[in-house]
User: What shape does this take?
Amino acid sequence: MKKNKQLDRLIDKAVIASFAGDRLNRPKVLSLVSSFKKLSKIEAIYMMNKYLEGIKRETSKTTLEIESPTALSQKQIKDLVSALKADYQITNVILKVDPTLLAGVRVRLGDLSFEDTILSRIEKLKEVIIG
Assistant: This one.
């Protein structure tokens, strides 16, 4: 257990060191991953899994995910990204079409989540009626 905590701390440091500003530092990543070869196979697999989880977590902090029931126009996307870039760092934008939303938009950026869809409004109305 104590050894896993030590490995987790090393992974956290490795994840942070893997980024140069807002971009993944490829040479640093390759160097860190190659250093896992010095570990036992079990430790190396553990480290790789935890490292990948950390990279995904850090990358998601600057990845804007926009869901809408139909494809958005380039102007709509640009306006939404511009509005959020004033307060948040955005390095990647993922667009998804989800017809079940009916109308509106769902936005995620790291831990931030915003939804203004017909479905979310119906759910809020349901909560108010039921109590």
Notes: The chain has two domains: 2-60, 63-130. The chain has a mean pLDDT of 83.
